[in-house]
């Protein structure tokens, strides 16, 4: 790799690391291009050469796992209710620890300006398509679930739970995820348990 390309990649990595650190510490609204440039040790012109806006940097940081970097893959044990409940518990515990709720709140605010950020948040958390909806759809098609709600409605309700939890910054209560998922996908609604 030519030296110039290596320096460019190092600068790009420094920009993404700096924006992740700044968003985590001060929140999206307080982050500026000037602050990112100073923290990364690059000029503003370097940032503007690669990114049209602050939200574009945030989107790339999300794609690379520098923000919301944990693995939020929904498990697949064959029990869709237990799997979605375990996944939601992981997400809610993550939000309750450290300042992750503040981070996600900042990213939600950023998604108002950039739909791509909203998409990237959903992808990082395993939300919004088709992960939850698809798991519910597969379980319904296999006769494992029989919910009065559509898979997309269930997906949207779970997304709403996570967003409200992030905005409210409430502590996680043991067993809460199972209770919430049970209200949406109660085992008593499974097709094989119905007369």
From TrEMBL:
Pfam families: TetR_C_11, TetR_N
Gene3D superfamilies: Homeodomain-like, Tetracycline Repressor, domain 2
HTH tetR-type domain segment(s): 9-69
Keywords carried by this UniProt record: DNA-binding, Transcription, Transcription regulation
SUPFAM superfamilies: Homeodomain-like, Tetracyclin repressor-like, C-terminal domain
UniProt keyword annotation of Nucleotidyltransferase present: no
PROSITE patterns in the record: HTH_TETR_2
Keyword Transcription regulation in annotation: yes
Domain of life: Bacteria
Residue ranges for the DNA-binding region feature of this UniProt entry: 32-51
Protein name: TetR/AcrR family transcriptional regulator
